[in-house]
């Protein structure tokens, strides 16, 4: 089974870096020039409102992108800065925007793992976490922040990271979903930063909400968001079934499972795919379906319980 034959991905995103585009009345977006296999064409920052505005996800440590964002709001007042999560392609530029505007920063909190690290796990400094980030104002699920002509509600969406928030604009049926849902690709869920158990619960939470136009951290907006979320839930369940199908043939390590499941994958994504498989295995071990010796870790061998 190929990785994406069951999700209606849209990779048509002609937005050029540094250009401000009004995608809907009251929502502008600016693309950062940080393309990669993980970020697609780059990180998308959003400007909400008109006159007195909020900026969502200032992006990576990138002076040109900060300048483009500030240029886009010239003559306006930035009253709020929101951050969906603390990966290095989303939060480090916050300091520059705050310094230039004086706006307070709203987020769930500093970076943290979804669970304690196991003894046998080596710390991976390249995990992409922004460990320097701290919000001025910590917000939690259900908290509402109002600005001039807009109102955003924090929606807890842990899974991609433990501190991931989406920001819903219920009156407009918009949701700024960060990296939890993306229109161009599935999200990476890499333990211990990420958790598949949390990720699936967060998908269910979004599916149960009213918002149906999603603005994502990478790639184009997603119309009919709840339907897309249902595709993602089905996709993850199919991925789990593929893992169980492989383990039914006998015990296996993660590289063996990746080769069996991700046919024709971009070699640069093999490591990430391994962590996604680990995230599923962690969930399956917790549910008693699969077993391993010791903790469920990237180097482990797995078998049906």
From TrEMBL:
Q: Name one Pfam family in it.
A: WHD_BLACT
Task: List the residue ranges of the region (Disordered).
Answer: 101-133
**What's the protein here called?**
MBL fold metallo-hydrolase
Q: Where is the signal peptide?
A: none
| Residue ranges constituting the Metallo-beta-lactamase domain according to the UniProt record | 41-218
Name the source organism. Answer: Bradyrhizobium barranii
Q: Where is the composition biased (Basic and acidic residues)?
A: 116-133
**By its UniProt entry, which InterPro entries does this protein fall under?**
LACTB2_WH, Metallo-B-lactamas, RibonucZ/Hydroxyglut_hydro, Sec-metab_biosynth-thioest, WH-like_DNA-bd_sf
């Amino acid at each position: 089974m190929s990785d994406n034959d069951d999700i209606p991905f849209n990779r048509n995103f002609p937005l050029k870096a540094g250009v401000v585009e009004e995608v809907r009345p009251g929502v502008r977006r600016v693309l950062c020039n940080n393309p990669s296999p993980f970020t697609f064409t780059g990180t998308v920052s959003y400007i909400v409102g008109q006159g007195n505005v909020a900026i969502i996800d200032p992006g990576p440590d990138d002076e040109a992108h900060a300048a483009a964002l500030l240029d886009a709001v010239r003559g306006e007042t930035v009253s709020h800065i929101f951050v969906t999560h603390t990966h290095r392609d989303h939060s480090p530029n916050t300091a520059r925007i705050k310094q230039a505007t004086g706006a307070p920063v709203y987020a769930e909190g500093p970076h943290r793992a979804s669970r304690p690290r196991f003894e046998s796990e080596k710390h991976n400094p390249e995990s992409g976490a922004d460990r320097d980030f701290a919000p001025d104002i910590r917000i939690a699920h259900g908290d509402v922040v109002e600005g001039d002509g807009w109102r955003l509600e924090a929606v807890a969406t842990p899974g991609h990271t433990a501190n991931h928030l989406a920001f819903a604009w219920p009156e407009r049926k918009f949701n700024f979903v960060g990296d939890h849902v993306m229109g161009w690709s599935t999200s990476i869920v890499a333990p211990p930063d990420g958790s598949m158990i949390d990720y699936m619960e967060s998908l269910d939470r979004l599916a149960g909400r009213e918002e149906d136009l999603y603005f994502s951290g990478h790639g184009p907006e997603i119309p009919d968001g709840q339907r897309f979320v249902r595709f993602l839930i089905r996709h993850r369940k199919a991925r789990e079934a593929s893992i169980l199908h492989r383990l039914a043939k006998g015990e296996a390590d993660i590289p063996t499972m990746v080769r069996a499941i991700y046919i024709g994958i971009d070699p640069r994504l093999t490591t990430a795919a391994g962590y996604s498989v680990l995230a599923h295995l962690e969930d399956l071990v917790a549910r008693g379906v699969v077993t391993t010796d010791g903790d469920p870790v990237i180097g482990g061998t797995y078998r049906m319980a």
